[in-house]
Amino acid sequence: MVAMGFITEALEFDPHQWQNVLIIGLGGGSMNNFLSAVDFIMVNLTTVELEQSMVELATDWFGLAESDTNQVVIEDGVVFVREAAKRGEKYKSILIDACFNDNQPIVCPVPELTKSDVIKNMAEILDDGGVLTVNVLCMRDSIGTEDVLLKTFEEHFPTCFLQRFSANQRLLVCTNKEKRSFMEQKDRFMENVRKVDDRFDFKISTVFSNYSSESSGSI
């Protein structure tokens, strides 16, 4: 998920100014820890988490450390994006990783974050050149839901596409730019994937190569 900001060029590897990033759903804090630890990408990070217990878990077990440029807000993500839109805030990258903890047909994202008014607010707080990345994880019997989600988000963004990572997991990616789907920018984005691997040692080129033909969306 983190890589998509760089692959789509919403985030710069060596920026000259701070880059605002929003995460909704802390989990174990792995994305938070990475983005806050790599100094040269200059990320000003805000993470919104509903449960105080998750923040305590990430702090005690996974080394979460808040700072002036790495803040965790205990709040409902729906409320946060609504109020952020009212304040006129803008983010270069928004990462949605809010999931159920139990066995649901759709594990990620939670349905509250897929309502039209919430998506509209996400589009408003996304920078003109920014990218929204949503973790989509479904049980095998609910795979078709991915395409329904795609159509819902396409109502609010000029470009959206799905990028598969495994049999039951995809990333839903949306931008406020025209003609920015993976298939439309395949050569350019694959070159950026290789840059991400080189800079961060992610080793995701193989994953993108294996599933690039399954990318779907605004073409």
SS field, number of helical segments: 8
CATH superfamily: Vaccinia Virus protein VP39
State the total count of DSSP E strands: 9
The figure for the number of domains is: 1
SSE string, helix = H, strand = E? HEHEHEHEEHEHEEHHE
Shape: globular
CATH architecture, by name, is 3-Layer(aba) Sandwich
Binned strand content: 25-35%
CATH class: Alpha Beta
Please describe the biggest sheet, giving its number of strands, its sense, and whether it closes into a barrel: 9 strands, mixed
Radius of gyration of CA atoms, rounded to a whole number: 16 Å
Q: What is the straight-line distance between the termini?
A: 22 Å
The CATH topology assignment is Rossmann fold
Question: Which structural class is indicated by helix and strand composition?
Answer: alpha/beta
Question: How helix-rich are the residues, as a percent range?
Answer: 25-40%
Integer average pLDDT? 90
